[in-house]
Design a protein that fits this description.
Elements (H helix, E strand, L loop, with lengths): L3 E5 L3 H16 L11 E5 L5 H5 L6 E5 L5 H13 L3 E6 L2 H5 L1 H8 L2 E4 L4 H11 L6 H14 L10 H17 L2 H12 L6 H6 L5 H26 L2 E3 L2 E5 L9 H12 L3 E6 L5 E6 L4 H11 L3 E6 L3 E6 L5 H15 L1
Parallel strand pairs: 1-2, 1-3, 3-4, 4-5, 7-8
Antiparallel strand pairs: 6-7, 8-9, 9-11, 10-11
Length: 339
């Protein structure tokens, strides 16, 4: 029997995209194998990807909603050294789009990229191949579109579903529990439908969803307090506000924290956080595409590495040989060109 694995991002977009692929493989037996084959599920971000797959071997590997970085490349290469596999890469991050030719050439992979959320890209890909998704999956894909800003015209999206999708992301971001992640994927891929009345009454919402909503509310309150405190310490460096949160916030949830600070100060924000392995992450949040332009410029100068993200949210590692002083000087020089 063929072996199939999905390695996908922790957030709701990764969960919902994975659920579609699980449904099509395990329930319909259509893709990537023409028979019902159990799918192994591995949640991962771009950092830590290599560790999750190193020493493993599968016939079919689906990478979902994870930006292509050095760590991802090293991980795929480690699998390739052990066995031959077919790679399918679904993602909407800029680094993946820029590296699609490399992925296809080096790994012979099928690459599906675009500017829509990854779950939308997966849905479009499957529908083009004649797959009809369940009402449950379609509702959750549309909810991701609303949250990501690409589905404001979808008037039929259930607000309860949108809140659940946001809560799932926050719950997983806070817990980083692989078992919980897998439960969400399995629940979403279940073909048994629920109607709006059942959803409002909560009869078809497992206790896990209630837990996610509770964690989400608590995380929001904590985030608001920390963001308000850090916003007061934001220093203007050229066109951006620099916030040094090292020792005040872990790397987990840094993107959400940067977004919260950006909302308070109303200007592009660069947030510095330190991981447990002493790596400094540079998180940039903006609203007019400055984050994407700035991370590219800093990468070209050799100040950051392993970059990923979108035009308004970007994350990278501060290069080992780069100092914070050099970073600040570069921000001053680059400010006139990133507006």
């Amino acid at each position: 029997m063929s072996s199939v694995v999905i390695v996908a991002d922790w957030d709701a977009d990764g969960v919902i995209a994975s659920a579609q692929l699980v449904y099509v493989q395990e329930r319909l037996g259509l893709f990537p194998v023409r028979s019902r084959v159990p799918v192994e599920l591995i949640p991962s971000g771009p950092r830590g990807f290599r560790e999750k797959v190193e020493g493993r071997c599968w016939d079919h590997v689906m990478v979902v909603d994870i930006p292509f970085t050095d760590d991802v490349s090293e991980g795929l290469s480690s699998v390739a050294r052990r066995c031959r596999f077919k790679l399918y890469y679904f993602d909407h991050h800029r680094s993946t789009m820029e590296s699609s030719n490399v992925i296809e050439r080096v790994y012979g992979g099928l690459v599906v990229t675009g500017n829509a959320p990854t779950s939308v890209l997966v849905r479009s890909f499957l529908e083009k191949h004649g797959v009809r998704l369940t009402p449950r999956l379609r509702m959750f894909v549309e909810a991701v579109s609303v949250i990501e800003g690409g589905g404001r015209g979808l008037l039929q999206v259930n607000e309860k579903i949108v809140r659940i999708v946001a809560a799932i992301s926050k719950h997983l971001n806070k817990t980083k529990d692989p078992g919980v992640w897998c439960k969400y994927v399995r629940w979403l891929s279940d073909p048994i439908p629920f109607d709006d009345i059942e959803l409002q009454l909560g009869r078809e919402i497992p206790e896990l969803i209630d837990e996610s909503l509770r964690v989400s509310r608590e995380a929001d309150e904590e985030l608001k307090e920390v963001a308000a405190s850090l916003a007061m310490s934001a220093r203007r460096v050229g066109y951006v506000r620099l916030v040094d949160a090292r020792g005040k916030w872990s790397s987990r949830g840094a993107s959400a924290l940067a977004s919260a600070i950006h909302k308070i100060v109303g200007e592009p924000v660069i947030l510095l956080v330190e991981r447990s392995d002493n790596v400094i992450l540079v998180v940039i949040r903006s609203s007019r595409g400055e984050a994407g332009r700035l991370i590219e410029a800093l990468h070209s100068l050799g100040l950051v590495e392993d970059k990923g993200g979108h035009e308004n949210i970007a994350v990278a590692r501060l290069s080992k040989n780069a100092s914070l002083g050099e970073l600040e000087k570069a921000l001053l020089r680059l400010s006139p060109y990133i507006r």
